[in-house]
Write a structure and sequence with these properties.
Elements (H helix, E strand, L loop, with lengths): L4 E3 L22 E3 L5 H28 L7 H17 L2 H9 L7 H34 L11 H25 E5 L6 E5 L3 H33 L7 H35 L7 H21 L2 H9 L1 H15 L3 E5 L20 E5 L2
Antiparallel strand pairs: 1-2, 3-4, 5-6
Helix pairs in contact: 1-2, 1-3, 1-8, 1-9, 2-4, 2-5, 4-5, 4-6, 4-7, 5-6, 6-7, 7-8, 7-9, 9-10
């Protein structure tokens, strides 16, 4: 365990402080220390998430962006969700290097601001895209007949463009307030935020608008979908499997981001003086933030793993892609999926009657 340092709730790390070790102004000095051996296993975890997330999300983007023919609405949201995860994944080596150096940021202020911006924008985009995906599933299952004018490719693209515009706006505070800040004891600089009470209020507002509100929308939609699925006439097996995959993606996102968002809200309130906390609890919150940060980064590589485990057609496409790159022989198999259907799994093959290559394993 590293030596203890003075630490207090004078000002919290940035709205999305992914180092989990921001320096705080001295309103009330509290002894603190980093997680035991965190400088070793946290960077290793970040780099593992980077490798899996880069390959998995890159494959999803290539698979969906390169698909010929008509595309379902759900594919549009899944494609943009993978792109948002890629934006987060690409910053992981930088944060891993900083974690290995005890929080010291060696890449300069420019990369500090850009990395913080990418993280804030990617998190916002992920939450809003999942909310959009839940609304699409709600319309497809609960309001199928009434929602036909809304469930068009143009509307889906417009929704995704709106999501990215909101995500870029949500990331702007990171460009303004994030930068190199001195570590306690003069041991170098970290990538943190400038001390500003106004930014703490802005952070709480962003948490409400870009996490709590989309989460509430998703919960309402999926509760409505679940009630509909329990009533006859029952939906087909393929659509049920598609919904199961999307439920898993949503649940993983909430499970990864909810602890971090809750802890960030506590730190914002402590900074604003609305929630006085004793030193032991402050230390527990700091360690909890470090663990929650790991969950956040692991989530960036979770979706391709979910597709691989739950979607048979995705496994087939992944195996085919690996075999083609390896130059192995293959045999032709017929795909029973239809590009015109909206109730097939998240990933499917070519139109009915088309042939694809599959490895002989």
């Amino acid at each position: 365990m590293q030596p203890t340092e003075p630490w207090s709730p004078g000002w919290a790390p940035a709205s999305w402080d992914y180092s989990g070790s921001g320096a705080l102004a001295e309103l009330e000095l509290c002894p603190s220390g980093d997680l035991p051996y965190g400088y070793a296993y946290i960077p290793a975890l970040y780099l593992a998430a980077f490798a899996v997330g880069l390959l998995g999300n890159g494959f999803v983007v290539c698979l969906l962006a390169g698909r010929r023919g008509p595309r379902r609405l759900v594919d549009t949201f899944v494609l943009h969700l993978a792109a948002a995860d890629l934006g987060l994944v690409l910053t992981l080596p930088l944060w891993a290097a900083a974690a290995a150096r005890g929080g010291r940021w060696p890449f300069g202020e420019g990369l500090c601001k850009l990395s913080s911006f990418a993280l804030a924008a990617s998190r916002c985009a992920g939450a809003l895209l999942l909310a959009g995906l839940s609304v699409d599933r709600y319309l497809a299952v609960v309001r199928l007949l009434d929602a036909r004018p809304l469930r068009t490719r143009r509307c889906a693209l417009a929704a995704c463009c709106g999501v990215w515009a909101a995500a870029l706006l949500a990331g702007l505070p990171a460009l303004v307030y994030r930068g190199l800040q001195p570590l306690p004891g003069g041991g170098g600089s970290q990538c943190g935020e400038e001390p500003s009470d106004a930014f703490q209020g802005l952070g709480l507002l962003l948490l409400l608008l870009t996490f709590v509100l989309p989460l509430a929308v998703s919960v309402f939609c999926y509760c409505s979908v679940s009630r509909r699925l329990r009533r006859p006439p029952h939906v087909g097996r393929a659509r049920s499997n598609s919904l199961r995959i999307i439920f898993a993606v949503e649940s993983t996102f909430v499970g990864s981001w909810l602890p971090f968002g809750a802890l960030r809200a506590v730190f914002h309130l402590a900074r604003l003086g609305a929630l006085p906390l004793p030193c032991p609890l402050l230390l527990a919150l700091r360690w909890g933030l470090a663990v929650a940060t790991c969950l956040v980064f692991v989530n960036s590589c979770a979706n391709p793993v979910i597709y691989l485990l739950l979607d048979r057609s995705f496994r087939a496409r992944a195996r085919h892609g690996l075999c083609r790159r390896a130059g192995l022989g293959g045999r032709r198999v017929s795909s029973a999926s239809s590009l015109s259907r909206d109730d097939s799994p998240v990933f499917w093959g070519r139109p009915h009657g088309a042939n694809t290559l599959s490895c002989v394993l």
